[in-house]
Amino acid sequence: MLQDFRSPFDATVVKLLKKAGAQISGKTNCDEFGMGSLNIHSLHGPVINPFRVDSRRAAGGSSGGSSAAVAAGLCDAALGTDTGGSIRLPASYCGVVGLKPSYGLVSRYGVVSYADSLDTVGVLAQDVERVEKVFECINKRDCNDPTSVDERLREKAHLLATKSIQRWSGESLKGLRIGIPQEYFPSELTSSSYHILASIRHLLSQLHSLGASIVPVSLPSTAYALSAYYVIASAEGSSCLSRYDGIQYGLRVPPSPESNFTSTSRTYSPSRSQGFGREVRKRILLGTYALSADAFDNYFLQAQRVRKMVRDDFDHVFSIPNVLYSKLSFEEKDANDHGEDGVDILIHPSAIRTAPRLDDVLDVSCDRDTLQDYVQDVLTVPASLSGLPAMSVPMRPDAGLNQPRDNQQSDENWPIGVSIVGQWGTDELVLKVGRVIERLSRR
Q1: Where are the stretches annotated Disordered (predicted)?
Q2: Where are the extended beta strands (E) located within 213-296?
Q3: What is the pLDDT of residues 305-356, one digit of tens each?
Q4: Could you read off the pLDDT of 12-36 as tens digits, one per residue?
């Protein structure tokens, strides 16, 4: 196995894997502190998508190195960290399976923090079976991690997910209700990405032919999720990275002799200016402003309100109750009776496009719209804000590195990912549906 730089060798997840017999062979490249969607903000340079190296396309980020290593066959599976889509997006670009588990199921102890309320350790592999095997190994309660969920809630969610699976488990999918959120097909999915929409439609047709019910649903707060995410993530990043001051942690750059040593900022600023990359400095400044006295109410608190609205949207459409926030006792709940009009899982595209060319995203000219770098997360951040399990499964899993294709530069010839999102704690259900989709896409 490989792991990204945010998961040190002494992290709990690494210890669990080694105890189970896994061989950790090294670390992979990632965006600095996980801040990025294309794996171009790294001291080690950008990660090149291995699907076709000579095309020089992005592997996605921030866990692009882990995704590329899996796609290139360098390991059986790899660890990654997902804050707003950093596993699912590179999985989609590279044509592998990427799982972001429910927040609180997998220990974050030992992981370098970016945004504590969002960071989640996940798994990337060539197929769902390997992802599931690794997830079962690291899905453990950890007393060293204050965000690790206790066994009582894990068991409640497991029983609810099992009841849902039992309704349709088998060759037929009759009883499985699949929600298609209309907000997850934004304007960015234009005619140039028609092949993504066509692939999703074909998949839904296959699922419907097996007996699954396809239900259109609405998650109206999705439109505000991306803005809220960047406020919250940047604010938490500003707080978490304040420890890297050049005194206790991080690079030490002595202030100039002319500096006023009675000023704390002048003592810290040389170390933080040289120790952090441009993207990290940008997000720290944004987060620091959001936490300032003048902006706190209008930005950070408002973003937290939007976060609750996003979570409430998910709870409204799912048939399975959210055991973290429900007021009823577990004995009063039954997955078969709760929300008869709700759905079991949601399905939508993992990304608004296939892997972009590195020459385009590395263009430093003023003509390039850098806002598009952040729009990549538009389909992945809602699940992160709500702490829900989400997995990207490739639509073309048989596409190999050496498989000849005509016009390899065409976007239509690059991997496409479809995301499966479930209620909190129903990771088993997400994995089960992922197996079905994987089997269908191999036909």
Answers
A1: 392-413
A2: 213-217
A3: 999 999 999 999 999 999 998 765 444 444 444 456 799 999 999 999 999 9
A4: 999 999 999 999 999 999 999 999 9
> Considering 63, 66, 86, 392, which one is annotated as catalytic?
86
CA distance 47 to 66: 10
Lowest mean pLDDT across 155-169, 243-257, 271-285: 243-257
Q: Report the alpha-carbon angle 192-193-199, nearest 5.
A: 140
Is residue 61 within 8 Å of 49, Cβ to Cβ?
A: no
Q: How many residues are there in the chain?
A: 443
Spell out the domain ranges in the chain.
2-174+335-441
Catalytic status, residue 350? no
How far separated are the first and last CA of the chain, in Å rounded? 29
CA–CA gap between residue 129 and residue 206 (Å, rounded):
21
CATH architecture of 2-174+335-441: Alpha-Beta Complex (3.90)
What is the distance between the alpha carbons of residues 390 and 89, in angstroms, rounded to a whole number? 11
Q: What is the DSSP letter of 37?
A: S
Q: How far is the C-alpha of 21 from the C-alpha of 172, rounded, in Å?
A: 36
Q: Of 7, 62, 148, 234, which one is the catalytic site residue?
A: 62
Retrieve residue 229's tokens: 């995410």
Query: What pTM did the predictor assign?
Result: 0.91
Give the integer Cα–Cα distance in Å for 349 and 197: 8
Q: Are 123 and 78 in contact (CB under 8 A)?
A: yes
Is 199 designated active site?
A: no
Whole-angstrom CA distances from 183 to 87, 180, 381 are 21, 9, 13
Q: Cα-atom radius of gyration of the chain, to the nearest Å? A: 21
Could you tell me the pLDDT band of residue 77, with boundaries at 50, 70 and 90?
very high
